[in-house]
Design a protein that fits this description.
Layout lengths: L3 E2 L2 H6 L2 E8 L4 E7 L7 E7 L11 E2 L1 H9 L3 E5 L9 H23 L1 E11 L1 H12 L6 E5 L8 H4 L3 H4 L6 H5 L16 H11 L2 H6 L26 E6 L7 H13 L4 E6 L11 H16 L1
Parallel strand pairs: 4-6, 4-7, 7-8, 8-9, 9-10
Antiparallel strand pairs: 1-5, 2-3, 3-6
């Protein structure tokens, strides 16, 4: 899955329009709309970018997937949200809830969407927020698609030093905090040093504490509301999970665990396992990625 920053020419080709879906004292939070036509009410897909909740922006999308969704008659809305560590997880989740409400309430008037047919989709941390939306967004989304996302944020994979990232050059606390600050931000271009902060968190096992603002060892129950895996009910939306077995950033077991819990609760779901693929489906063959995209469109259409 090739998620990259769109060029201005690509944005024009996809017919992008930008809206402000939420205003705060210190910032405006934006959403980009990609619309195939205005002839009738369309089903909508909200796209949530990844970046560990620390990096990224709404312009980081899969152009080919978006084109397929538009061709199939979907309107696509890619959203920003406030980023950690300047903003903690409860407020980030509120942004996702507010974005969903904005699409549901304003979509029919502003850009001809059917408010009864809204799905949520994202990759990595965006996949996590997608799964969280299944528990928190109201009214409940019609469907969810999580690319290499996760339903648990306090397991050893995130709350302990990570073996893969620990093999990389060590990032000091001082170096890590040079890339972040105190001012609220909603967009990260990748030209800053925020990735160093992420590496520091993974090397030290501090991501849950730095992002959520709570210590999972001292307050394990405080994370109940933040973990989709712990909040699945029979009313959870139909869900498509996509994950590579060699993912060194988000373990494949995260999607497998979600699939097993969805099955226990009787929720319609599918798990697409991509053998030998890494994070972002790195290493998967182009034809394999294209086939998965077609399966995503078919799942959402159903």
């Amino acid at each position: 899955m090739s998620v990259a920053q769109l060029s201005l020419a690509q944005e024009k080709t996809l017919g992008k329009k930008t809206y402000i879906y939420k205003k705060l004292d210190t910032c405006e939070i934006k959403a980009d709309l990609y619309e195939s036509s205005k002839e009738k009410a369309h089903p909508a897909v909200i796209w949530i970018h990844g970046g560990a909740l620390i990096m990224g922006n709404r312009g980081q999308v899969d152009r080919t997937l978006f084109q397929k969704l538009l061709k199939a008659g979907f309107t696509v809305i890619s959203i920003d949200y406030r980023l950690a560590p300047e903003t903690k997880l409860p407020a980030i989740l509120e942004d996702v809830e507010d974005a969903y409400k904005w699409v549901h309430d304003k979509g029919p008037e502003l850009y001809h969407i059917d408010p009864e047919k809204i799905a949520v989709m994202g990759g990595s941390a965006g996949g996590y927020l997608t799964l969280a939306a299944g528990c928190r967004a109201r009214p409940t989304p019609k469907a969810l698609v999580s690319y290499y996302g996760y339903g648990d944020i306090v397991g050893a994979w995130y709350s302990r030093p990570d073996p893969f990232y620990s093999r990389m050059p060590a990032v000091s606390k001082e170096e890590a905090y040079q890339g972040v600050g105190s001012a609220v931000i909603t967009e990260s271009s990748g030209k800053d040093n925020r990735r160093q902060f992420y590496l520091y968190c993974r090397q030290q096992g501090l991501w849950p504490k730095e992002v959520a603002g709570r210590d999972p060892d001292k307050e394990p129950r405080a994370f109940d509301a933040f973990c989709p895996f712990r909040n699945i009910s029979a009313k959870y939306p139909p869900t498509l999970l996509i994950h590579g077995t060699k993912d060194t950033d988000v373990p494949y077991e995260q999607s497998k665990m979600m699939a097993e819990e969805l099955a226990r609760k009787g929720v319609r779901h599918e798990l697409i396992t991509v053998p030998e693929a890494g994070h972002g489906l790195a290493g998967a063959k182009p034809a394999e990625v294209a086939d998965i995209q077609d399966q995503v469109v078919a799942f959402l259409s159903r």
